[in-house]
Amino acid sequence: MTFLTRQPSAMPRRSVRAFAATVAATALLLAGCSSEDSGTRSFTADNGTFEIPAQPERIVAIGRAVPSLPTTDAPLVGVVEYSEMVGITEEQEKTYEDLQKVGSGAELDYEKIASLEPDVIISGIPLRNFTKVDEDRLQSIAPTLSLGPLTPYEWKDLGEQQTDAAGVSGIFDDQKAEYEDRAAEIREEYKDKIDGVNFAAVEQADQGANGFTRQYTGGWITNIPEDVGLNFPGEGADTENNGATFTEALSSEKIPDLRDVDAIMYRAEADGSPVAGLEELLSQSAFQNLPAVEEGRILAVNGLWAETYAGALICLDSLEEALKNLPN
Q: Could you tell me the superkingdom of the organism this chain comes from (predicted)?
């Protein structure tokens, strides 16, 4: 299990989600979304509106609700196994390790979830996979909120909703404000190296595939650098017919297509070495002969896979260092 520790310091349902968020925010302003007598409030998620505790005490987090809730100290009693969380503190990591594990992905242990007696279940399972879950069974255990992404960059909005439901939005808001200030600071400091520059983001191929993956605007590893002003032009094919054009699987023969970009970014470990699986791409002569590589215009960035503001702050630190070393 991989953790990166931070020291303390266009589908139709998208419009449904936006409307639901607006309704929930309006209700919060008008009535606090709660009943002082019952200690509950109405909460609108992708799968409906539910009465949940105004301040939950026993939460089970599944899917991509896991990164946002441990990093904001939500009152968790159970979580799914999660392989990579960026920005979790040592104390939060220990808390996570000690929590009851209730499955992995959409494969859930319903009996174990029931035994934990949660007062709310918060799901971050991607919407396309939520249908694989026995929602009726979950709802019979506790109100279950579906707050899963359609696209990678939605972790920001969803994290806000997930932490709101968990009653820890204050911590989330503090992390968000710190992140936005830090991104603006880096943007201003390195604008001469960012403005007018075309970046390419590359990843190892999916498991079992050959070649490599290129990510564009709104991708898993591009959405944080975009907040600093980096531009990743182009788009992939909408292979799943869901409007997702932020990524593209390419054969090694397509490496020379990167000759037209000004700089290349990829994921790195904390020590700057490429993440596992990338070395095969980076070592190929076709890659080594690219103008950007020959000129040293490479950004090896740690934390690009972050799905929380706590993790994104680690990414910004690494990105700043990479920009500092990027030739003019």
A: Bacteria
Task: Give the residues across from 298 on adjacent strands.
Answer: 264
Quick one: average pLDDT of 159-184?
A: 96
Side-chain half-sphere exposure of 48, counting CA atoms within 13 A: 8
Q: What homologous superfamily does CATH list for 2-170?
A: Nitrogenase molybdenum iron protein domain (3.40.50.1980)
* Main-chain phi, psi angles of 262, to 5 degrees: -90, -30
Beta strands in the chain (DSSP E): 2-4, 40-45, 48-53, 59-63, 76-81, 84-86, 100-104, 107-108, 120-124, 144-146, 199-204, 212-215, 247-250, 263-268, 298-302
CATH of domain 190-325: 3.40.50.1980
> By CB neighbour count within 10 A (0-12 exposed, 13-18 middle, 19+ buried), where does 198 fall?
middle
pLDDT digits over 8-21, tens only? 343 334 444 444 44
List of residues 6+ apart from 101 with CB closer than 8 A: 78, 79, 80, 81
**Percentage of the chain exceeding pLDDT 90:** 73
Give residue-wise pLDDT tens across range 103-154: 998 899 999 999 999 999 999 999 889 999 999 999 999 999 999 998 888 9
